[in-house]
Here is the input.
Amino acid sequence: MRIDYFGKSDKGRVRKTNEDHFAIEKINPDEYLFVVADGMGGHRAGDVASKLGTLSFLKHYKKCRKKKYAIFNSMNRALLKANTAILDKADADPEKRGMGTTFSAMVISDSKAHMVHVGDSRIYLVRNDTIEQVTTDHTFVGKMVEEGRLSEEEAREHPQKNILYMSLGARKAFEPEIDMQLDLEENDILIICSDGLSNMVEDKVLKEYAVSYDPKKAVEELINLANDNGGQDNITLLITRVEPNREPDKTEPIPIIKKKPFSFIRKFIKKNTTEEP
Here is the structure.
């Protein structure tokens, strides 16, 4: 399986700093790790939480994989370590109290995608010209949508749409979405983004750009579009495309001449040359 991917983060048009953080790691030739984290908290604590959570997760995930833990167990253990790292940092620094971050991570390996998720950043799957949000928004407004009390359109305009009931670093005990495993198919597109993108660009538009362009151009164009639409928050976007397997070229091998090469050339010339009349 071959994949093409690209990621980028932008502070947007309104915020003075960027509290998002993202990472792309090639764990081994057939294992890739992608993370998007959207930090929150005053006194620049949001960027501390998102970066600390991401780096801690990467460190412990790679450590677990070296110990031959399964991907599911490695992601679970690493997520708990990342949560503890943020809590410990907040306890040690009064200015960082209350900081936290959304956290969406995906590992692609052996034609499968494994995911862990906390908060309201999102992971989408684009397949057969349709887009599906495969994660849940851990917001009170998102819960109302799940329960049928609000429509998707009403939720998009709700003034409290970004109030989370679960995030990384909020408390020791939490129940993230873990190992939402997908069997990948050729031409699948996986999108991870912070709400600075999803709040500014509708899902159907996100799908059209992801389908129409390669990951790098799609990411750049969508971030530009989110900024054109207001850029009210930090914007982070990762796009990964599963490329079709290429068939090997069926050309005839070039003969290797081990003996008397000049003799071979003379015979070739004689065979393909006609005498003048």
